[in-house]
Write a structure and sequence with these properties.
Keywords: Signal. With about 120 residues, this protein is mainly β. It has a single domain (about 20-120), classed as Sandwich (Immunoglobulin-like), CATH 2.60.40.10. Helix content is about 10%, strand content about 30%. It is built from one helix and eight strands, in the order H-E-E-E-E-E-E-E-E. Strands 1-8-7-3-4 form a five-stranded mixed β-sheet, with no helix packed on it. A three-stranded antiparallel β-sheet has the order 2-6-5, with no helix packed on it. The radius of gyration is 18 Å and the shape is globular. The model is unreliable at about 1-20 (pLDDT under 50).
């Protein structure tokens, strides 16, 4: 009886977990805009450009460069605004990948949100 109760509780717990992954479809060369939400002034991404995570910080003098260590610059035409909106003037293949918000508050039983930027139709 105890074993059956444990399995039932475990199944209910797993089935109540909501997905935290979104898919954002884009076309190469096109303008793209995504709102990560207020206070999301740092965006972390993983792309084919490098195996290391890359970061973009909101700021008044951005040149669109991402960084892995605060020193290197990975070129991009992205701009992150203080309201958590990222704008790509022209999407490139290097912009395709997974995007996360390191400052997103922890939510009990939910994973952090991840946005996958993918080519439209794939």
């Amino acid at each position: 009886m105890n074993c059956l109760f444990f399995v039932t509780v475990l199944a209910l717990t797993i089935s109540n977990i909501e997905g935290a992954v979104a898919r954002f479809e884009v076309e190469i060369g096109n303008y793209a805009r995504f709102d990560f939400g207020p206070e999301m002034i740092i965006i972390k991404r993983t792309t084919s450009v490098t195996e290391e995570a890359q970061y973009l910080f909101a700021g008044p003098n951005q040149d669109g460069s991402w960084t892995t260590n605060g020193i290197d610059k990975i070129p991009s035409n992205a701009h992150l605004y203080w309201n958590g909106t990222i704008v790509f003037k022209s999407i490139t293949k290097d912009d395709l990948g997974s995007y996360e918000m390191p400052l997103e508050p922890q939510r009990m039983h939910l994973a952090k949100t991840m946005i996958d930027i993918v080519l439209k139709g794939q």
